[in-house]
Amino acid sequence: MARIVRLLSIFTTDRRLNGFRLWAKLLLIVAMILPFWSPQARCQQKVGTAASPFLNLVNSARANGMGACAIDLVNEESALYNPGGVGLFHLNRTIAVAWPPQSTKWLPTHTDDLHLNSYTLSAGMSSQRLHWGKNPLLNVSLAFAFSRLELNFGTGAIVSHARDRADCYTVAIGADYLIRVGIGYTYKRITEDVTESWYPEGPSYSSSFAANGEDVGITVELPLWRVWRSKHPQKLLEPPPAMQITPRYTYVVANGAQGGEMLPQRYHKGLSLHAKYVKTGCSVVDMTLVGEIEKPHLDEGKLLKGGVELGLLEVCYLRLGKFKDDPLGSYGADVNTLGLGFSLNGLIKYTRIIEHMRSSRVRLRWLVANLDVRFDYARYGGEPNQALYDTKFYKLTVSL
């Protein structure tokens, strides 16, 4: 404890680092509490991994293109995988909707009856968008999101209908002051409905299951150029440099259960490095390297994931990745991933359409500058005999 006090005293003796003083204390408190956070500690219940395995499935086209590294996402889909990312996303976005043009056929080499669906809706507001505060370097956001993950089973000889569904309600906050921090909480309502019929004209039997779960996550971004300029505060208001490098760390406790031994609780740790080159205010090329470790609560194995994303002019993206299965073999062997993406907002910036619009059309100029329509695609590779081989993902996102 004495070492911690001495460490904090460093931040209080240098006025040039006043911006980091509060952050250091807050992050230290969160880092000490979060690893021990668990609903089981409060309700004295043990969590197993037998039921609701669909909660571990990733239905994000962007994440699956990068080896299924979902917790690194900072967009509206973060509500399903990392609630802290929602707070960061709404530092400069007001509303977003993600909907798949079609459902994902799950385990396509084994069956045609499994379909994985998900959609999200998020809304938030930041102090800069409301023009609150006098400090141009400080931006704070508050965001809410609703998301749904659903796995539908088709009609068979015995089971006529089955569906697993998780409704997620997320609240998150984000803060941007030299460094960026997002903290979020998600409450999950998990249901399972099954209708069985032994004969086409015979009697039916219905059963259902319900449980509650919780996710909590934190994401920290450290723009290195801001840290460097903090030694000369007057330079912080100048335009960002051409080369920008930002590491990001994420920690998530997923599926903490209130419903007994029913939910597969997991711990996720992710580290990524984002670098981009900017010229005349537009990104020319950017690259993201990301890695993730997913560790089950009962230590029966861990899942390793990694990927890379290459972007050109913030318009088109190429993604590659791989994830290695845990010893249980629930996903098969090594799985290679490929993904593509397209952003309308990047195209608008590159073509500079807004500069040719009349300045009197204020609302139209704002809409064009902030509207983004994004399409993402991903595909699982590997061996043709693997269960996940040739699984395809599609996602369409509209945000302002």
Number of domains: 2
Strand order of the largest sheet: 1-3-4-5-6-7-8-9-10-11-12-13-14-15
- Report Rg: 23 Å
Number of helices: 9
CATH architecture tag of the largest domain: Beta Barrel
Main β-sheet, in a few words? Answer: 14 strands, antiparallel, barrel
Estimated share of beta-strand residues: over 45%
Percent range of helical residues: 10-25%
CATH class of the largest domain: Mainly Beta
Order of helices and strands: HHHHHHEEEEEEEHEEEEEEHHEE
Approximate shape: globular
Distance between the termini: 45 Å
How is this fold's topology laid out?
Elements: H1 2-13, H2 18-33, H3 39-43, H4 61-65, H5 78-81, H6 83-89, E1 95-99, E2 104-105, E3 114-126, E4 139-153, E5 159-177, E6 179-197, E7 204-221, H7 224-229, E8 243-257, E9 266-279, E10 282-296, E11 303-312, E12 316-324, E13 335-343, H8 344-351, H9 362-370, E14 372-380, E15 392-399
Antiparallel strand pairs: 1-3, 1-15, 2-3, 3-4, 4-5, 5-6, 6-7, 7-8, 8-9, 9-10, 10-11, 11-12, 12-13, 13-14, 14-15
